[in-house]
Amino acid sequence: MAKYKCPKCSETRLLSKQTIIVRDNKIVTKQAFCESCEVYMDNIDKPGGFGKAMMRGGKALSSRMGNAQPSGRIGDEKINIHE
Fold this sequence. Notes:
By secondary structure, this protein is mainly β. About 5% of the residues lie in helices and about 30% in strands. The strands form four sheets. Strands 2-1-7 form a three-stranded antiparallel sheet, with no helix packed on it. A two-stranded antiparallel ribbon has the order 3-4.
């Protein structure tokens, strides 16, 4: 949900769907149009970072894998991966 505010009349609107369009060489949100003032509203949301999708709890991946390093082995035979 995004929050928009009209710069002229201070009307606010909470939008769940935003369609980005270009009008008069400016990028605006189609649904954030103030009919009474005939201008596009400004987004007043504060950026929240990457959110919880980028957060990871618990141990790091290397510690869960026992600090395993690639050995260059397939089965029992040794393979030189630096050739």
